[in-house]
Fold Cell division protein FtsX.
Amino acid sequence: MRAQFVLSEIGVGLRRNLTMTFAVIVSVALSLALFGGALLMRQQVSAMKDFWYDKVNVTVYLCNKNDAGGGAAGAPATPACAKGAVTAAQKKEIKSDLDELTAIVDKVYFETSDEAYKHYKELYGDSAIASIITPDQMQESYRIKLKDPEKYQVISTAFAGRAGVHSVQDQREELETLFQMMRGMNVAALCVMALMLVIALLLIVNTVRVSAFSRRRETGIMRLVGASSFYIQMPFIMEAAVAGLLGGVVACGLLLLGRYFLIDGGLRLAETMPVVNFIGWDAVVAVLPLVLVIGLLMPSLAALIALRKYLKV
């Protein structure tokens, strides 16, 4: 009988404050969707870093005649190559030193100027400068696959500035800009989520306050007949919990639709960007229970705090 009364009071409260209840559901849904999206974005950045950092190389670029100031155009020498183009003895010495770094070096691949020219044409064949570039202008290089990508500084310290070495480049630097941008987007999503969360909490508190005021006669009668504080407060807490849970369900739906629309359907990023390691459905499904739990508990706690202030029992 008591359970039936509590359920009936929940229905009455939700219908009586229908507009505010709808506002609570929408604000909770948006804030939780942003929260879940931020968690998934962080997982996406982590997955991309693991995927790309495992594939990027450290490249030791060698000096050629153009870098040494011996090009056909008479260009001045690059400071690092002022002593001249790399010699066969210097290349052999560099390769020997790389072979000795077995603790950190996994593989070493030598790329000739012709191979570098071929790769350049594949990537930038449509550009205007590609038509005037010749193979002898391309630098030979050693492509180094590290066992631990974080050990880049060892290679840089050992080979940067050596005779015949133009520069040492870590390809991770090219990716770090992308990751920084994605982390910035993640922070922005968290900031918007925090703002929406504050709005949702204020709406919940105001909804409970209005509901308690509109039913002050009923609560007064219950107080006179000896009803416990918990029993009087329960309908109001359950109203907020139901609204929050509905908001959580909507947020879960938005996350699932977002994953499908962005990656599998609609934009089809998984097909248009095959080089990106996108998170799977398992990552999205793993976030949904947390979203539902927060959607249930957050409004309940907010309602309990509001009742202590506005409903004296």
The first strand starts at residue 58 and ends at 62. The chain has two domains: 2-52+176-310, 57-170. The two ends are 22 Å apart (CA to CA).
